Amino acid sequence: MSSPQSNQSSGSDEDLQLAAVDPRKRKRMLSNRESARRSRIRKKQHLDELVNQVAHLKNEKNQILMQSDMIAGQYRRLESENTILRTQLIELSERLQSVNSVLWFMEESSGMPMGIPEISDPLLKPWQLPCQALPVVASAIM
Known about the structure:
Elements: H1 4-20, H2 23-110, H3 121-124
């Protein structure tokens, strides 16, 4: 390790050497030294800015990942609910068709009109729904 005095003496040695050198060369050396100092300062500022930018981008990435996870969870819940609703629609359509079959049978056997209402096709034919039915996919997350 060098002592603070040796650092000071080497600095003063440089000053003495500069004094002995040609004034134009001395001026150029001082200018170069100052330019190098400013360059080091700019480099440090740039590095600090990059470190701050990295921290900001990591924070932003974490927020986006959290939002993505939240949206994926909502999607899975809605997909599950949609599957349940489709199943209920099929079940209710089958029940309605059974009730209508009983009413038709009673109407034919009694000869008395029962006034069975017409039901639209999508309810009686759930496999032909206007919306596309998506397959149910099991997930390890669920």
